[in-house]
TrEMBL record:
Enzyme superclass (EC): hydrolase
Family designation: Belongs to the metallo-dependent hydrolases superfamily. Hydantoinase/dihydropyrimidinase family.
Transmembrane parts of this sequence: none
Lineage, top ranks: Bacteria, Pseudomonadati, Pseudomonadota, Alphaproteobacteria, Hyphomicrobiales
Keyword check for Protein biosynthesis: no
Protein name: Dihydropyrimidinase
Record's keyword terms, sorted: Hydrolase, Metal-binding
Organism of this sequence: Sinorhizobium numidicum
Length: 484
């Protein structure tokens, strides 16, 4: 059995050309003109692109006294409907819990996934046990990324000495640390102050997390990574202050990556001033949405390459869950959805407006993160031998986003009412057609765990350079006698 995607234009991160793509046994087996196979998918008028990779999701995540409402089944169904063929979720040990035990819990949740997936491991506490288990997570379990929360004080937050210890361990293991960069101590005090002043609505969530708080933490995470001798990836970069820190570090030669979310690129802070409490609370996430100047900075970063990846941080809570925070904004579960909408929204607001090119679209939705996570060219590529995770993108197909027609399990959509032009005609996950002209044909349990090996090249280069430039005592001849 083979499938040929016929008559389309292949668009990758660096090339645009007309060719057919033949798929067999879940892999791309041939690329060229006039291919034949058992089945044909008509790609006339379409772009054939690597399926999206979303490196930041929280499916069925225990958080703020509840669980996010999309699980691995509905979440990956939403992903495929929007052209995303792989997600990377976060295994979150509760403080004191073994990393391996937490990973086991996430392994159990992910058996229902419709598309391929992987995990980042979160470091939520520090001990000799964590130090030791990090090696098993990298070498035995195939996970090369560790997430650190500088916010959520009293829950997931780690402090600087824990982060520095963990980053040094990442350097030794060839792993990449990820950081949620907000100063959690300052946020906690600002929250308490706002509440004491009677500011308890969802808008106070935004007031409690100003851009400076994110910028400071981003600078601090970058400095700690520099001292530890490892690269660092800043998740949900939402503001100019954080972007500026990343730009500056990259200009100094550091391997620092930044990940804006589609929500921050397209929605702004005025959402929190909506008179409808539910409307505003549904958009509560950390960091909060910002103003147009910050949005312009993020778009510029994607175009210029100082920011590399567009993700969603998909963490969907129902309106009923959001209402836990009526009367106290600090109890509104933080998180928004976006898995189904990331690629259509980015195409509509990015490619169609001329902010980014089609090739840059592929780079920031798929190829760059595949390289950063060390799964390229299995994912993120249209090459012979790569996984047939593909999206046949119809630039003329249009819809108005609505909670009534979405795959996500929640009862609203933060992009409700927005018309997007540019949608999948077909989405294929390892050669299997999961989405066909808007019809969902996903197969629960089809998704497989993708192993991600460490990056010895980067850590070897960084440790070699550190060794070359390490402080050394000057060897002197004829040292004078002590003056004492
Ligand atoms: O508000 C957010 N972003 N919720 C999900 C957890 C996180 O911080 O990424
Ligand atoms: Zn400490
Ligand atoms: Zn976060
Ligand atoms: Zn997140």
């Amino acid at each position: 059995m083979s499938t040929v995607i016929k008559g389309g234009t292949i668009v990758t991160a660096d090339l645009t050309y007309k060719a057919d793509v033949k798929v067999e046994g879940g892999k791309i087996v041939e690329i060229g003109p006039n291919l034949t196979g058992t089945d044909t998918l008509d790609a006339t008028g379409c772009y054939v692109m690597p399926g999206g990779v979303d490196p930041h999701t929280h499916l069925e995540m225990p958080f703020m006294g509840t669980y996010s409402s999309d699980d691995f089944e509905s979440g990956t169904r939403a992903a495929l409907a929007g052209g995303t063929t792989m997600v990377v979720d976060f295994a979150l040990p509760s403080p004191g819990q073994s990393l391996l035990e937490a990973l086991n819990m996430w392994d159990n949740k992910s058996t229902r996934a419709n598309c391929d997936y992987s995990f980042h491991m979160a470091i939520t506490w520090w001990s000799e046990q964590v130090f030791n288990e990090m090696e098993a997570i990298v070498k035995d379990k195939g996970i090369n990324t560790f997430k650190h929360f500088m916010a959520y004080k009293g829950a997931l937050m780690v402090d600087d000495d824990e982060m520095f210890s963990s980053f040094q361990r990442c350097a030794a293991l060839g792993a990449l640390p990820l950081v949620h960069a907000e100063n959690g101590d300052v946020v906690a005090q600002l929250q308490a102050k706002l509440l004491a002043e009677g500011n308890n609505g969802p808008e106070a969530h935004a007031y409690s997390r100003p851009a400076e708080v994110e910028g400071e933490a981003t600078n601090r995470a970058i400095m700690i990574a520099d001292m530890a001798g490892c690269p660092v990836y800043i998740v949900h970069t939402s503001c100019e202050q954080a972007h500026e820190a990343i730009r500056r570090a990259r200009a100094k030669g550091m391997r620092v990556f930044g990940e804006p979310l589609i929500q921050h690129l397209t929605l702004d802070e005025t959402e929190y001033f909506n008179k409808d409490w539910d409307h505003a609370a549904r958009r509560v996430m950390s960091p909060p949405f910002r103003n147009k100047l910050h949005q312009d900075s993020l778009w510029a970063g994607l175009a210029s390459g100082s920011l590399q990846v567009v993700a969603t941080d998909h963490c969907a809570f129902t309106t009923a869950q959001k209402r836990f925070g009526v009367g106290d904004f600090t109890k509104i579960p933080n998180g928004t959805g976006g898995l189904e909408d990331r690629m259509p929204m980015l195409w509509t607001y990015g490619v169609s407006t001329g902010r980014i090119t089609m090739n840059e679209f592929v780079a920031v939705t798929s190829t760059n993160i595949a390289k950063i996570l060390n799964i390229y060219p299995k994912k993120g590529a249209i090459l012979v031998g790569a996984d047939a995770d593909l999206v046949v993108w119809d630039p003329k197909r249009s819809k108005t986003i609505s909670a009534n027609t979405q795959q996500s399990a929640i009862d609203y959509n933060v992009f409700e009412g927005k018309t997007v032009t540019g949608l999948p005609r077909f989405t294929l996950t390892r050669g299997v057609v999961a989405i066909e002209e808007g019809t969902v044909k996903t197969q629960e349990g089809h998704g497989e765990f993708v192993r991600r090996d460490p990056f010895p090249a980067v850590s070897t280069a960084l440790s070699t350079w550190k060794e070359v430039t390490a402080p050394r005592a000057v060897q002197r001849i004829g040292i004078p006698a002590s003056g004492v």
